[in-house]
Amino acid sequence: MKNLLAIVCSPRKPSNSELFIKAVCKELGSDWELNVVRLIDWNILPCRACYKCLFDKCVQNDDMGSLVELIVNADAVALCVPTYFLGANSLLKRFIDRGLMFYSVFDKLWDKPMVGVITAGVAGMEGYAKLMVDSAIKVMGGRLLASTVVFGAFPGEAVIGDENAGKVQMIARALSSEKEISSSGLRCPLCGGDSFRFAEGKRVKCLLCSNEGEYTVTEDGHIKLIIAPHEHQFFLTYQDAMKHYEWLKQMKERFLRVRSQLKPVIKEYLHYGKSIDPPNDGT
Ligand SMILES: Cc1cc2nc3c(=O)[nH]c(=O)nc-3n(C[C@H](O)[C@H](O)[C@H](O)COP(=O)(O)O)c2cc1C
């Protein structure tokens, strides 16, 4: 029996995100069990940017440690995320911003099969939500088997119709075969990402791995990408990720060295402008 952990980022119950992954699990059959984490019910506090978790425990006293443990113990993970204002909703971002915690268990997360489900209410209006979900999976060290954007506005709509049924089957196939199923079209030769920024001088940047290079257009109109790895890599290989982890840890000594030089810079701006405290609403 394999266990699929679905991290559902929708605040609504029932949600399209949750219904879709349940349909996937039904398709997978009795060899799989589904565990659902509704992030809205979990106490996940924002990252404090103190970097303590790189050396010791995270300072936030919340449910993030238990969630990381669930991810470590899952055979596969599904990130199920609604689109809000053209991006992934904030529950995903708050969770993934705690990602420095992943490094201490990265050997257990690396290459774990993962899939992304992005729900959106209006066909074609998912904006950069898929990129955010793909990125979250890569940052978790997961092997991105497949991700799909599912259209449906009202709860239930994501699991009706032939198109959505095809997407359910595709995600189930990716999970059962543990094989990557990528959408057709232009893909980054380094990470498989499918979102790019094109610039003058035939420059191109992959928005998933952040590496840059050049593109050429062949005579028959196809775009060819030549992208080279940057010095810093979050997830191209396990070794690259560990190198970045070590670099991050070394930043502490660097900070201690430059701290006294930065103090006067900070002091100059300390009382500039007026800070506005939140209103006391009596709660
Ligand atoms: C605040 C808010 C913003 C939304 N923005 C978008 C959007 O930019 N594009 C879109 O296609 N759908 C948008 N939607 C619709 C949801 O993505 C859609 O209803 C989806 O089914 C929600 O999935 P869920 O049921 O899993 O929460 C938005 C919904 C809300 C509540």
Rg (CA only): 21 Å
Q: Count all strands and give the number.
A: 10
Order of helices and strands: EHEHEEHHEHEHEEEEH
Say which CATH homologous superfamily of the domain at 2-177 is assigned: Flavodoxin domain
Q: How does CATH name the architecture of the domain at 2-177?
A: 3-Layer(aba) Sandwich
Low-pLDDT residue spans: none
Shape: globular
Hetero compounds: flavin mononucleotide
**Helix fraction bin:** 25-40%
Secondary structure topology:
Elements: E1 2-8, H1 16-28, E2 32-38, H2 64-73, E3 76-84, E4 87-88, H3 90-96, H4 106-109, E5 113-120, H5 129-139, E6 143-151, H6 162-177, E7 196-199, E8 203-206, E9 212-217, E10 223-228, H7 238-270
Parallel strand pairs: 1-2, 1-3, 3-5, 5-6
Antiparallel strand pairs: 3-4, 7-8, 8-9, 9-10
Helix pairs in contact: 1-6
Keywords, separated by commas or semicolons:
283 residues, 4-stranded antiparallel β-sheet, 6-stranded mixed β-sheet, alpha/beta, 33% helix, binds flavin mononucleotide, Rossmann fold
What does this structure look like?
The protein is α/β, with parallel strands linked by helices and 283 residues long. It has a domain of 176 residues: Rossmann fold (3-Layer(aba) Sandwich). The chain is 33% helix and 22% strand. The chain contains seven helices and ten strands. Strands 1, 2, 3, 4, 5 and 6 form a six-stranded mixed β-sheet that branches. A four-stranded antiparallel β-sheet has the order 7-8-9-10, with no helix packed on it. The longest helix has 33 residues. The mean pLDDT is 96. The protein binds flavin mononucleotide.
